Amino acid sequence: MRYQVLRVGNQGLHPKYQDSHPKYQDSYERNQDSHPKYQDSYRGNQGSHMKYQDSYGRNQDLHGNAIKKAVSKLETAFF
């Protein structure tokens, strides 16, 4: 409804807008075409996300090992 009111208010400009509209449509369709590429890129990022997850898990392991080493050093130092 808001668009209808705007269209009535811009009645004088409307034909010019009509001329530019198909160009906008083409641009919109081109963006639609590029969308699957974006999807692939998104899936690619999903793939790298899993890699990041693995790396995160490895870092967790390393962190645990570092704590164990530090604790064993403390134990040998104090006991």
Note down, in words, how this protein is organized.
By secondary structure, the protein is mostly helical. The protein has a domain at 41-79. The protein has helices at residues 2-9, 14-78. The radius of gyration is 30 Å and the shape is rod-shaped. The relative contact order is 0.04.
Q: Helix tally?
A: 2
Gross morphology: rod-shaped
Helix content percent band: over 70%
In N-to-C order, the SSE pattern is HH
Mean pLDDT: 57
Radius of gyration: 30 Å
Beta-strand portion reads under 5%
Give the helix/strand class.
mainly alpha
Low-confidence stretches: none
- What's the N-to-C terminus distance? 80 Å
Largest sheet: none
Number of strands: 0
Can you give keywords for this protein?
rod-shaped; single chain; 79 residues
Chain-wise SSE layout:
Blueprint: H1 2-9, H2 14-78
Region (Disordered): 1-49
Biased composition (Basic and acidic residues): 16-40
In short:
The protein is mainly α and 79 residues long. The chain contains 2 helices and no strands. The chain is rod-shaped, with a radius of gyration of 30 Å.
